[in-house]
Amino acid sequence: xxxxxxxxxxxxxxxxxxxxxxxxxxxxxxxxxxxxxxxxxxxxxxxxxxxxxxxxxxxxxxxxxxxxxxxxxxxxxxxxxxxxxxxxxxxxxxxxxxxxxxxxxxxxxxxxxxxxxxxxxxxxxxxxxxxxxxxxxxxxxxxxxxxxxxxxxxxxxxxxxxxxxxxxxxxxxxxxxx
Length: 178
Description:
By secondary structure, this protein is mainly α. Helices cover 63% and strands 0% of the residues.
């Protein structure tokens, strides 16, 4: 949302970005937890399964009336401007600004977070990966540059939101266990 605001999207577009961001991995519900939580490298068969999740996100969201924009933005988050993304292999002219924001934001979030197979990266490593992706035509350079220029504020916002959600769920779990 913060990146969409920095780029100058309207308030209604920012709300759609929020929904797309929250729902972009919805398709992972059909991916086995043994793959999602695997602490080591995925096999090629496991990787093929995980690469199906954006398709499932699209399949689910596109059936909801009024969600066409959200469905596209959410499900194109692994597409690349060079056409080598997945699962739809969209070319740059087929990927609009909302989907590009979700894609760059997803990479940033994936790199900054701890994962079962690695610790989150430091800011300099994240900047290098993002800028390399932009310079090689994988991600939108304008969006990457906005993120890099505002990375500390965005990182802080992401961490605060994640902490709020984590605390909310811990409280709810504790309440349910009583």
